[in-house]
Request: fold
Amino acid sequence: MATPQVIAPSRAPSGPSTAGVHHVNVRHISGFTVIGNHLAQHAELSLTAIGLAAHIQSLPTGARVGIKFLAARFPESEARIAAALRELEAAGYLHRSRVRLADGRVVTRTTSYNHPDATPEQQPAPAAPPPAPAVESHPTAATTLLTGLRRHAPQLTLSAQDIDALAPAVATWLDRDVHPATVQHALTSDLPPVVRHPAGFVRNRLTALLPPPLPAAPAPAPGAIPLQDCDRCDRVFRAPEPGPCRDCREAEPHRAA
Reply:
């Protein structure tokens, strides 16, 4: 009787042959947000900050992003969310400014940027002396804005030569702390059906609608207590050092109980 032979399989079982992540991707056709790898793979931001930035970028304009609201929405503590917001501000993905309402209240306005280069606050200051001309301050942003006009208004398709000629005028707007989205709106809103000379049309709007420079911020009075953003509720209050406002400090014992 012949001895049975054990025959090895001709190839290894199918499946991933290497360790690490493997992706199974489905194309999204609605309800999605584009997040750059510069954020998703940021080498210095914490995971909390990266996740919070992705969440904020997915929200519609006007959505609430105060510290208390986010803490009620997610399991992270108010202190951890406040720290993550500060990380995003330092990295250029978020900007919080104080705005006085018509009734006299001062509130915090939050602006989210999907790329740090989108905010003029993150641009490097020009060397001095001598001061750099306006076109040197924002050459890349001005060129990008003019090149992208045709995505929003096909009537404003510009040649490369036109873009080079108009870039200094756009840079003047940006140097006056006007956000690129505001410049784009000024150039593309209320357009006639046909624009026969796009470069001339854009040049006229850039000249006629140019806003004045912002006035210099008044110097604080000697001994004045600076304004702070509450680490808990985003309320603006006066205090010598950052931290929670009085209402949040008083509420802390009740929360601990």
